């Protein structure tokens, strides 16, 4: 009996250790609705972006690249998606390689894109304050004088509902690239002076790399790449004064990615507690990987770079991220099955519990699926992608069915962390990784 009590006591002791190093997960099954074709063929199927309006109903914007080129929109009307409609006039010809990008707040919608109208590539915006029932005339965002080339725009929205736009600016011969940011205080009627947000980087920004924005209160974070003799590492610049200046900048890679071509994937980020969570593509280790990075909002120091779903000799690209508090959803495309397809990783309990990749595209069609995008809110994940089988844009909603609660060890999955064994720029730590879950 005494021996049994000692054994039982030891068991309780080890169970307490396990519980101490574990987190409680809500064991929920992710359920996918039927896939819906939003647009196909001559209706357009270029680069879909999804966002939510005030009633959490999805709106999707995309390009029609065939003549006449235009930007189009569909939105949920409560029971189905509307037919595609044009949101710009036909004389404003959008670029077939860039955009659109969308930001929403309630029923306010801002959409930015690049057009060669009237002569040189420039950044334009349309907006709606009635949930997409009507849109404004086209508004030029980038400067017009002196003549310059502006392209690769992105957009976010501040707490007051004003647009914030980033874009790349060049001289007319595509020299002297700069990552610019313009803010507005009157809902896009006018824009403040453009600010060079990459000015404090140690080298010029990557000339063919699109930036993105994360906005929280008066803080604006610009995510971009630098080109230092073909070293194209990821950086973050910060403004703490509503975009007047970007005084702080930091590199957020462990290894140098040397590349003499363009890494087309855009780094994307969200606010997560006291940090930014950033998803990006990196080929620095010789494998084209989608990597998740945690960056402190205060000083832009990063605490880890980690793979989301590491597969050797597979090309992963075009990651996107959405979250609500500690519920995190990430999508990307990769060619693990020879052709490109789209995958989803998620956690309802922080970074440490992210799942491996789940294929979420239509299994009834054969061939490549690519350019995934998503938004998560109110328990629903809204996903869009391009289906190469029928040249279509497809939408699918995912949600969770509740089951029981279980305990799962933080270290129950084998994660590949990008440690630099030589100590180069290595501020990763396994302790940081666990703490930042």
Give keywords.
four-stranded antiparallel sheet; disordered C terminus; mainly beta; 437 residues; five-stranded antiparallel sheet
* Quaternary structure annotation: single chain
Described by the principal axes of the CA atoms, the overall outline is globular
Overall pLDDT score:
87
Backbone CA Rg: 23 Å
Helix run count: 2
Low-confidence spans: 1-26, 403-437
Total beta-strand segments: 29
β content, as a range? over 45%
What is the end-to-end distance?
42 Å
Question: TL;DR of this structure?
Answer:
With 437 residues, the chain is mainly beta. Helices cover 6% and strands 46% of the residues.
Describe this structure as you would to a colleague.
The protein has 437 residues and is mainly beta. Helix content is 6%, strand content 46%. The strands form 7 sheets. Strands 1, 2, 27, 28 and 29 form a 5-stranded antiparallel sheet that branches. Strands 3-4-5-6 form a 4-stranded antiparallel sheet, with no helix packed on it. A 4-stranded antiparallel sheet has the order 7-8-9-10, with no helix packed on it. A hairpin with a 2-residue loop joins strand 23 (316-324) and strand 24 (327-337). The longest helix is centred in the first third of the chain and has 19 residues, at 2-20. Residues 1-26 and 403-437 have low confidence and may be disordered.
Reconstruct the topology from this structure:
Layout: H1 2-20, E1 22-32, E2 36-40, E3 46-52, E4 58-64, E5 70-75, E6 85-86, E7 101-105, E8 108-115, E9 122-128, E10 139-140, E11 149-157, E12 163-170, E13 178-183, E14 195-196, E15 212-216, E16 219-225, E17 234-239, E18 248-251, E19 268-272, E20 275-282, E21 289-296, E22 302-307, E23 316-324, E24 327-337, E25 339-347, E26 358-359, E27 369-377, E28 380-387, E29 392-409, H2 430-435
Antiparallel strand pairs: 1-29, 2-29, 3-4, 4-5, 5-6, 7-8, 8-9, 9-10, 11-12, 12-13, 13-14, 15-16, 16-17, 17-18, 19-20, 20-21, 21-22, 23-24, 24-25, 25-26, 27-28, 28-29
């Amino acid at each position: 009996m005494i021996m049994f009590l000692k054994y039982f006591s030891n068991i309780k002791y080890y169970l307490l250790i396990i519980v101490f190093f574990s987190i409680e997960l809500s064991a929920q099954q992710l359920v996918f609705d039927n896939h819906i074709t939003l647009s196909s063929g001559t209706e357009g199927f270029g680069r879909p972006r999804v966002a939510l309006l005030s009633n959490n109903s999805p709106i999707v914007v995309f390009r029609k690249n065939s003549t006449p080129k235009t930007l189009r929109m569909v939105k949920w009307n409560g029971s189905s998606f509307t037919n595609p409609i044009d949101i710009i006039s036909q004389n404003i010809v959008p670029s077939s390689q860039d955009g659109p990008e969308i930001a929403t707040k309630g029923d306010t919608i801002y959409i930015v894109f690049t057009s060669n109208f009237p002569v040189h590539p420039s950044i334009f915006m349309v907006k709606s304050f009635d949930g997409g029932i009507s849109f404004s005339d086209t508004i030029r965002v980038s400067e017009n004088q002196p003549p310059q080339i502006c392209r690769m725009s992105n957009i976010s929205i501040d707490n007051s509902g004003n647009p914030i736009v980033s874009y790349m600016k060049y001289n007319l011969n595509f020299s002297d690239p700069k990552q610019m940011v313009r803010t507005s205080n009157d809902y896009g009627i006018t824009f403040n002076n453009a600010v060079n947000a990459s000015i404090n980087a140690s080298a010029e920004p990557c000339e063919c790399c699109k930036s993105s924005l994360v906005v929280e209160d008066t803080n604006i974070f610009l995510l971009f790449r630098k080109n230092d003799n073909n070293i194209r590492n990821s950086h973050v610049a910060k403004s703490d004064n509503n975009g007047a200046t970007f005084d702080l900048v930091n590199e957020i890679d462990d290894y140098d990615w040397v590349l003499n071509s363009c890494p087309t994937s855009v780094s994307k980020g969200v606010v997560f507690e006291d940090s930014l969570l950033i998803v990006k593509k990196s080929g620095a280790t010789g494998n084209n990987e989608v990597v998740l990075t945690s960056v402190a909002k205060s000083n832009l120091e990063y605490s880890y770079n980690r793979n989301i779903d590491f597969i050797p000799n597979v090309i992963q690209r075009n990651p996107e991220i959405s979250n609500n508090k500690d519920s995190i959803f990430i999508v990307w495309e990769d060619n693990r099955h020879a052709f490109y397809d789209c995958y989803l990783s998620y956690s309802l309990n922080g970074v440490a519990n992210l799942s491996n990749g789940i294929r979420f595209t239509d299994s009834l069609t054969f061939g490549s699926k690519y350019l995934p995008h998503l938004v998560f809110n109110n328990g629903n994940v809204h996903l869009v992608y391009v289906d190469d089988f029928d040249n279509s844009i497809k939408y699918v909603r995912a949600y969770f069915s509740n089951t029981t609660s279980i305990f799962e060890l933080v270290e129950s999955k084998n994660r590949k962390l990008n440690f630099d064994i030589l100590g180069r720029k290595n501020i990763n730590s396994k302790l940081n990784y666990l703490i930042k879950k």
